[in-house]
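Weekly sync notes, structure subgroup
Attendees: PM, AL, DS (notes)

Item 1: joint prediction request from the bench team. They want all two components modeled as one assembly rather than separately. Inputs as received:
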Amino acid sequence: MAQQRVVVVGNGMVGHRFVAEVVEQGLAQRLHLTVLGEEPRPAYDRVHLSEWFGGRSADDLSLLPSRDFYAANGVDFRAGAKVAAIDRTARTVTCADGSVVVYDQLVLATGSRPFVPPLPGADLPGCLVYRTIEDLEAIKARASGRRIGVVVGGGLLGLEAANAIRQMGLETHVVEFAPRLMAVQIDDGGSAILRRKVEALGVRVHTSKNTQKIEALDGDRLAMRFADGASLETDLVLFSAGVRPRDELAKQSGLAMGTRGGIAVDDACRTSDPAVFAIGECAAHKDRCYGLVAPGYRMAEVAVDHIAAASAPRTFTGADLSTKLKLLGVDVGSIGDAQGQTPGSHTVAFTDSVSEVYRRLVLSPDRKHLIGAILVGDGSLYGQLLTLFQNRIVLPEKVEGMITPQTGGGAKIGLKPSDLPDTAQICSCNNVSKGAIVGAIRDHKYTLVGDVISCTKAGTGCGSCKTLVKDLLHAELKAAGVEVTNHVCEHFKHSRQELYHLVRVHKITTFGELIARHGSGTGCDICKPAVASILASAWNEPVIGRKHAHLQDTNDRFLANLQRDGTYSVVPRCPGGEITPDQLIALGQVAKKYRLYSKITGGQRVDLFGARVEQLPAIWEELIAVGFESGHAYGKSLRTVKSCVGTDWCRYGVQDSVGLAVKMEHRYKGLRSPHKLKSACSGCARECAEAQGKDFGVIATEKGYNLYVCGNGGMKPQHGVLLAGDISEEQVLRYTDRFLMFYIRTADRLERTASWFNKLEGGIEYLRKVVIEDSLGICAELEAEMAHVVATYQDEWATAVKDPEMRKRFRTFINTDAPDPSIVMVPSRSQHRPAFWEEKERQLETVR
Amino acid sequence: MSTAAPAAIRWYHACRVEDIPPWCGVAALIAGRQIALIREGEGEDIHALGNFDPFSRAFVISRGIVGDLGGIPVVASPVYKQHFRLSDGVCVEDAQVSLPVYAVRIEHGDVLVQLSH
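Output from the run, pasted for the record:
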């Protein structure tokens, strides 16, 4: 069969889904795809757009599995290609730049545009919309240095936009025409709770407000005038009052339209022209346009089936508008007939204005089935309710038990994964059934939720079904007799978090005591260093003291980093990367004297390699004499706080980044943690210190500092997320104290902050609640624990060289002062390196 | 090799028991050979194994963490963490690989190691 030429107009989420479906079905050979995207970049995740303000870049939001995804699959992708006209007779599409593309089949995925009400002044500078990355850039530029932002529209998109405004640190207002927030999805009860929660975050909500006009004030500020005579002064107005389908190209080319706009399509997503399909928000199926991504994805899949003439093509018969969102950190879920408009339906509702939770179930007239639901403040039941709804599962007798507090927060609503039929849809975003998930678990013998998710794609959309996926996995593992534990090792039937808790609560100070009371056997190379780290985090006694020395990995036991030939490297601390000329000279002298290979590290300090065990104390005596301290390069502890030069020298710096870096490094030096900790402090938004790639990092702003946490370089780079913006230096230290101690309390062994964060239920919102709002009431404890560590800091190397008992341990041989004969150096560039095994094998034959 | 004289066997003094911290190892250089002396527990239970780690090819076994796996006393290489049984030097992860094991005798707190050459 000849290759069909398929042209896709639009590269939003749905347009991309179409391409991805073609690739996934292995149709890329048969269908030659040309994708015309108006925006300057390929498709990105518009659902999570507000995370751009939290530090995710446009690249991070990209939907492409890899940068060259389109090219690698033979897709002719053209960015910045705006389509000007369609000629259905000639079957061509003409772009604004005059280029013409021929098609056999055309797919319109043009999406929609934000609706800007026709108000006088709606086009003034400072009146913006929220849809594309370019819109975000315009919003950010406008917000810079300004104070107030108003969002017009209190629906789903409006609240998303309000979150963006708030994340930029502006005083945030939401203006809504209707008497309540999210009038379409939820009822008065839910809306009241939502409003309280949103207002508690400092967002001002103005309902029943009819905006009449916007006026320019002096100094390019704006004033909104309302029908009731009230007005509101602001720096920025963001219209987020719904969207309109982008159907003008289709209209011009004479395709049939829906009665309320949108391109009319049938169940195959075909328009009035059999060679033209329309999918996503621009399409009107049975006169209805869907503004959610899941129905758009379904349409994309259906269109692929029909274009490729699949043997059993799927059809689009309408979509359920159930949705779960986190708006301004507040869970909002709406399922089916949420408003209870079905004649004869029943309602069961539960309001808790103390914990600010609202739940409503809408039951069928015979009370046997769930036909709708609303959840505000706690969305944990969403996945289960959605499953009950979609699969028409017969409800238990006492349905109110499902939403009342005794059982409400948990999973005990009588819905076990095993009760579901294999056809039950678990992930509605990606249309994944229980059968597909269970099949994947069995076929690949998966034991980790992450593997199941990446294989089946379940949970990669809105994420609301992740708990169900986990339950399914655990049920499968249990059935297969696999035990799922997070025990540290065979010697402790506890997780690291539990051991940390036991150590603290029972004031346990030695490994012997812990294993005698809570473990078995004699310990191993897994639990001993883990417990040593816990003891050090909790009590901060010297790690090489007699009590603890035998627990330490060799690096901590010799306070240096073991290299491949059995020698060690030495890294003195250079707080903030600052070093005096005298210290530099001393480093050079020590390196020369002990013949150490010298290298600059990535953390703005100097690493000296090739020291033998017995040389370490002498080397350190010389380093200590010129003011150096241990750099803890060997420990699971704070490494460096890297910095740029900041206001001291830099033309662009807005804060004293070196000063703060030095302060932070001195504060957290020596802190033992589940894994190493890296930090950085940048003096301006140019971010020269790369603070977003660190476990905790600070970027100076005009008003103070932005604190990022849980970033990572290394094997799997990950950007840090914004914990708090425009905060003072004192707040930086306070939040960092709490954050670090919370991480130390709860992380697994050898778990960096980034992986810890990725497993943290509730993500950044939860972390903010714990660390900033003190939702667990533990912040005072965390601060006190950190204060203890800071107050009891001692330089390990200063302690070690002064203590004859400790010093004695730095010997290569217990019975002679002879150096290790196996250590052989060979010249390399202008320095030297350890000989490779082949180079020294012959001479060592006798001593092995 | 076939014509070698009968191996000379002798006991060498390595160190005192208290020179080895409990649950730790030290290295000794005896007759040109590197020996790891490992103290299992707090008493006089001392094991002598080769100090050469066959996986990393560095002389570091004495710097490993001492403990047990399933109740069998082992030392873990500090480089790539393979475990070697203290009783016979056999590697837990790869039974084809083992460390040499030497006889140890304690006399009035002195650690004596038997070597043949």
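Discussion: The interface with chain B takes residues 490-491, 521-525, 527-529, 546, 549-554, 557-558, 562, 564-566, 809, 811-816, 818, 820-822, 837, 846-848 of chain A (CB under 8 Å).
Action: AL to compare against the crosslinking data before next sync.
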